[in-house]
Amino acid sequence: SFVAEDVLDYPLGPRSRFSEIIHKQGREPAGRLLRLAEVSAEPRIAELLGLRRGAKVVLAERLAMADGRPVALGAHHFPAARFGRIAALLRADPSITKALAACGVPDYRRQVTRITARMPTGEEAAMLAQSRARPVLVSEAVNVDSERRPVDATLTRYAAGRAQLVVGEG
Questions:
Q1: The pLDDT value given to residue 3
Q2: pTM
């Protein structure tokens, strides 16, 4: 026997915003900032952001929750040359939407999302409060501003037993 988990529908569209999505489903969103640092961009992140290899990015790693249960681990990467203030803004208020607005990007849209699945690392399983034997859904996304310049490259790991990604026009 097993206990079926209450699965959250997580629509992926041009304006995917975690708190809005969770609220619309009658749940309480929450998040915890796990790490905030300026780092050298890994080759794939540099490519997604249109930066040279090793360029500096601000990395914000966050745990996203719905009704107190972990749903996703996100690693957001912002070009440091353009968003040097974003770390301080995120320390004061963890809202990425608000931080980008304060940096002169009042709105942003999803340019692309790639979805795969894999088994979690031990750390991912622990943070998501799930078994290492249960896969995670992995999305790689790029958000752009109104001029189609990349503002964020994000790698998100979803607890597959708690979230299903929904792609469509809604």
A1: 46
A2: 0.86
